[in-house]
Amino acid sequence: MPGLIGMDWSFVAGVIYLLNTLFAIVVIFFERRNPTATLAWLMVLFFLPLIGFVLYLFLGQNYTRQRLFTLKAKDDAALRAIFEEQHRRLLESQHRFSNPEAEQYRDVILALLRSNRAFLTEDNRVEIYTDGNKKFEALFAAIRDARHHIHLEYFIVNNDELGREVVHALAAKAAEGLEVRLLFDALGTRAGGGSRAAFRELTDAGGRIGVFFPSVYRVNYRNHRKIAVIDGRIGFIGGFNIGDEYLGRGPLGYWRDTAVKITGQAVKLLQLRFFLDWHFAVGEYLRADPAYFPGPDGDGTTAVQIVSGGPDTRRSPIKEGYIKLINAARESVYLQTPYFIPDDSISDALRLAALSGADVRLMIPSKPDHPFVYWATLSFAADLLDAGVRVYTYDNGFIHAKTIVVDGRVGSVGSANWDVRSFRLNFEANAFFYDAAVGAELKQRFLEDLALSTELTAERYARRSRRIRFKESISRLFSPLG
After folding, report:
1. pTM of the model
2. What is the pLDDT of residues 264-281, one digit of tens each?
3. Residue 224 bears catalytic tag
């Protein structure tokens, strides 16, 4: 019997070793990962065989990513013609912008147009929300006033008080005969108790739900976007999901986030983003009916580009947009993010901006919602201190905003964090804006948050305990996985 047990364990060990070797071959030769991620996966597979095997099944495979490219290629081809004329005019400097900020950042606009077909609209009004109660008051008001359709797309729709309130409001409009569609990510929403049964009131009233990527055992390739479109006239985009914690009712306390309400032609681009994601998840093709894209156009003056990124893009357009904004800075770069795990391109851009004399400030949480990510964030943020970047930890609850404002004139608000998951592995959407008034307001919100934050100086960071140093080292070591 002892010999038999020994033989069984030897067989199991051999199988695990064989599988790890096969996965290593796949990582190196077939998946074309970046070298840092490749080395991280090889280390996990060979030094933690059993754990590495499980992690790879949940996090590492790229076959789904290739399938996403194939499925969305047809949609992308259909849209290409829409942007060719604006691209040509910008390239030939024939386009005349409606405000000086758009003219000043023509190269940023052109880069995003070329890399992401992010059409520029210039007639928008933008309202900024940094408090969940005010943001959802505005959303509920728009839902109540809706006359034709309501399209919501969120990573998380929790089955809690706020989630049920949203579902109830949507069901009431569906019962009036409006078209109501709610798209949510399977993994993000399932974690908050949002099973199909939680949306029965909506579906019974005639509303439709779409579940993005139902494979809940896969952590990657999630739809992390937060978009709402009401009657094709009002749009919302930002960092707030739907759940009580986003109103400050969760264990992390007050929830500091950022979202914007947009009226103007940019809403049509949010609508288009929803159409593509709905078609991908549900298979229903929504035609370009004038009821979904109504006129007249807006009467605002803010220039906006809606930029999308994720596994369905060959590059990282939102990250590239961030880098272009940082490189354009002459006075200041203020950014907020709950998760800061940058690659070298982001770190180098921030360091060079600070070394060149710009006032570069980064605000991160003072408490973790995901400990592994938090300790890595602290480590990467501290790396920038020697270049003159000033880092702050937000003390008044939890900061979840994903924003950047440059020189108080241009910036971005959306769902994309400053980490590898947002840049490569999840579906994200951001609004890039070019307007001095909007930029000044976003900069002012950042400065107000400084009064509720503690600066992470080099001296303070050096005093951290050995226990924290160990956590940072382990978290940083595994941060490239994906």
Report:
1. 0.85
2. 999 999 999 999 899 989
3. yes
